[in-house]
Specification:
Helix content is 68%, strand content 0%. It has helices at residues 3-14, 18-32, 39-46, 60-72, 82-99, 105-109, 115-130, 135-158, 169-177, 186-196, 200-220.
Length: 225
């Protein structure tokens, strides 16, 4: 038996904490998706009585809400200037999708903002206010950034075209053609290749810098708003 599993079982037999339950639940969702998470499977993973889980959570829905907080808790935006904080926030949201592709839907899909989410958002607001924005304008920027990062991360998870941006143009055309209707005109085939074949890291940074550079220009303007 792997050492990590033995440690988890020993911890469950001793004291079953909320954090230990959430950690095991996240492991199950990472492995099998939301559908693979049940209170019984979770109890088996923790080597615990299923009823003992209800001392901490009312049921699966309550557990999923707890996972939202656990995921947001992985973000660390630091306490630098506004550009550093916003970059860390956007990159952190995207990293959640890469680290937890099966669980990432929970981050924005539960209709809630736990304290673990509000903390980095508050840090971002404060950094923008220190840079000269009023609170309402700062909130607009934070919403824009979160929407961009979350949307991009969702796109990466749901729309993998399987085209290597480092492949030759001919190889890219062949790969893209497989995903298109047979009667696609040549000019639209080229459009599909240009849009679908990209370095996702580079493209994310391009979009992020467009937002941040636009904000920098706005802050440097006469009103700074």
């Amino acid at each position: 038996m792997p050492a990590a599993q033995v440690q988890r079982k020993r911890r469950a037999r001793g004291h079953l904490s909320r954090d230990a339950i959430l950690a095991a639940a996240l492991e199950l969702v990472d492995q099998d998706g939301e559908g693979g998470l049940t209170m019984r499977r979770l109890a088996e993973r923790l080597d615990a009585d299923p009823m003992s889980l209800y001392n901490h959570f009312d049921g699966k829905e309550s557990l999923l809400d707890g996972l939202v907080g656990a995921l947001w808790a992985e973000l660390d935006v630091g306490d630098g200037d506004w550009r550093d904080v916003l970059t860390a926030l956007a990159a952190g949201i995207r990293r959640l999708a890469h680290d937890h592709p099966q669980a990432f839907r929970l981050v924005f899909g539960r209709g809630m903002l736990p304290l673990q989410a509000l903390s980095p958002l508050a840090t971002a607001l404060s950094a923008l206010e220190r840079a000269g924005l009023d609170r309402r304008a700062a909130a607009e920027i934070v919403r824009t950034l979160v929407a961009y990062a979350g949307g991009w991360a969702t796109l990466e998870l749901s729309c993998a075209c399987g085209v290597d941006p480092g492949a030759s143009e001919v190889e890219q055309v062949v790969a893209v053609t497989r995903a298109l209707p047979a009667a696609t005109p040549t000019n639209l085939l080229e459009v599909a290749r240009l849009v679908a074949c990209c370095d996702m890291d580079q493209q994310f940074e391009l979009g992020l810098n467009l937002i941040l550079d636009g904000l920098a220009s706005r802050l440097a303007g006469p009103s700074g708003r």
